[in-house]
Task: structure prediction
Amino acid sequence: MTDTILNLIKRADSIPGWIVPLIARISIAGLFFKSGLTKVVFDGSIQFSSSVQFLFEQEYNLPLLPWDVAAFLATSAELLIPPLLVLGLATRLSALALLGMTAVIQIFVYPAAWDTHLMWATVLILLISKGPGCISLDHVIRKKVGR
Result:
């Protein structure tokens, strides 16, 4: 049994380092992008879905910002930042922006969902602290610049 455990640990140690940040970027990007898609309707132009006003005005009830400004900012972030993460472009800044958004959601919108938000935060903090990995545009740019 000890040999089996040691064998499993050895196999786990041999997982390439680029896989974790790649999966982290794609998974968190998909989560936020899907959320953004639920807020818009594409019918020749881009408009908020019918539920957005209710959600941002009644359910989310964010302080400091009018519902339409909050809805625009959140939806824009959810639709524009995920492609950057998938490409690995401006990864740390993008992850930081989504971490801030996660904090707002946790504090003001769904405080009881701390376990879900903690999971999101873990992935985002991983990307902020470790970067996007070698399968990313950030890595290519960094190599070109020489840092």
In short: DSSP finds seven helices and two strands in the chain. The chain has one domain: 20-145. Residues 20-145 form one domain.
